[in-house]
Design brief:
Blueprint lengths: L11 H9 L4 H12 L5 H10 L13 H14 L3 H10 L6 H8 L13 H21 L8 H12 L5 H11 L11 E6 L6 E7 L4 H16 L6 E3 L6 H13 L3 E4 L2 E4 L8 E3 L6 H27 L8 H28 L16 H6 L1
Parallel strand pairs: 3-6
Antiparallel strand pairs: 1-2, 4-5
Pfam families: rva_4
Protein name: Integrase core domain-containing protein
InterPro entries: Integrase_dom_put
């Protein structure tokens, strides 16, 4: 009795197209199994390729200016990984292998890297990114509106700098802490209750000792509420260690215990159970609030101060200009932002049926419960 035909014969055109596009045989077997539920081993596939008289696959990558430009576009403009880049190129009909793509990327004249192998390379790349951001802000203030999700692709597309997202955004926040702070000198700090979304404290001003200022803000908030937070998460930065130390001392003094509405809660004395230092990007609630405040209240000030700088009416390096800016605008800016905070604390968070975990109500009222 004749041997039954394999199910692969029903998909000859599909297999031929994949093979001629440069797909490896293991990948073709995988796609047959995934797309058509056809299980084929490598030996069967190889026999069919020979029976169908298909030509040998291109085993070497021919580097042409057109291919190099296409690779550059996919890496920097689109932001594809190496695996995604090969897949797209093969679909477009380019004869390219994984080794060939790596050779194009790592050519001494290009060095298109996504991952850095040494601290020296990382620091050099961050320095280039810092200089690029400084030059961009001299021409336009538009980059100030790019958040954590847009800043990396923007630098990748405009400057061909592939900087890891988190280190890049941390550097950006250090350069422009809350966008109206530097180079204009106004400092903005806030604390949000993760449960109620109520703004616990809000500070607008300027000081030469930011760490001491943040410590005073934290202690003032604890004194006003008559308690210390159960858990505190703050940005990683030179302005928060004193507040962290004060918080931990409160924990140690209370033996790691808190009494609330007649109930006693025990959390331990180790720092990690009561405090965490992390970028604000890890705290969705405070990050979302910062973005909303920026668009509602402070964006116009960022643009206005940028116009003053562009027109030559303000120079952040001149003490006289900085003092004049404080004297004229600090109280106005503070009052406007305080009004936004008050409106936020009193607004009503609606009930979301598709997100039952979201607490609804007014933040200020919820913070009292």
């Amino acid at each position: 009795m004749a041997r039954p035909r394999s199910a692969i014969d029903q998909h000859r055109d599909y297999v031929s197209r994949l093979y001629l596009s440069g797909f490896p045989r293991s990948r073709i077997c995988y796609k047959l199994r995934k797309d058509f539920h056809v299980a084929v081993n490598l030996s069967t596939l190889s026999r069919r390729i020979a029976d169908w008289d298909l030509p040998r696959q291109q085993t070497r990558t021919r580097e042409t200016p057109e291919l190099i430009e296409t690779v550059r576009d996919l890496i920097f403009r689109v932001g594809l990984t190496e695996k995604q880049t090969i897949s797209v190129l093969q679909r477009q009909g380019w004869p390219i292998t994984k080794r060939g793509l790596k050779r194009i990327r790592l050519h001494p004249d290009r060095r298109w890297l996504r991952r850095l192998n040494s601290e020296e390379e990382r620091l050099a790349l961050l320095e280039k990114a810092e200089q690029a951001i400084i030059e961009m802000t001299k021409r336009s203030n538009a980059i100030s509106g790019y958040g954590k999700n847009l800043l990396q692709p923007y630098l990748r597309q405009q400057m061909q700098l592939w900087v890891p997202r988190d280190p890049l955004f941390q550097m950006y926040k250090a350069m422009f802490p809350n966008e109206v702070e530097l180079p204009y000198g106004f400092e903005i700090y806030a604390a949000i209750d993760a449960y109620s979304r109520n703004i616990i404290w809000f500070y607008v001003g300027h000081t030469a000792t930011t760490a001491l200022s943040v410590l005073k803000q934290y202690l003032a908030a604890c004194g006003a509420y008559g308690l210390r937070p159960w858990f505190l998460q703050a940005d990683r930065g030179s302005e928060t260690p004193l507040a962290a130390a004060a918080h931990w001392n409160f924990v140690l003094r209370s033996e790691g215990r808190i009494e609330w509405h007649g109930q006693v809660f025990q959390q331990g004395k180790r720092l990690k159970v009561s405090y965490k230092a992390a970028p604000s990007t890890k705290n969705v609630k405070i990050e979302s609030w910062w973005e909303r405040m920026l668009h509602v209240s402070s964006r116009q000030w960022v643009e206005y101060f940028g116009e003053l700088t562009t027109d030559g009416d303000f120079d952040g390096d001149m003490l006289e200009d900085q003092i004049a800016l404080y004297a004229v605008y600090e109280d106005i800016l503070r009052q406007e932002l305080f009004d936004f905070v008050e409106a936020w604390n009193m607004h009503r968070i609606r009930l979301q049926k598709n997100r039952p975990h979201v607490v609804h109500g007014q933040p200020w009222v919820l913070s009292l419960s």
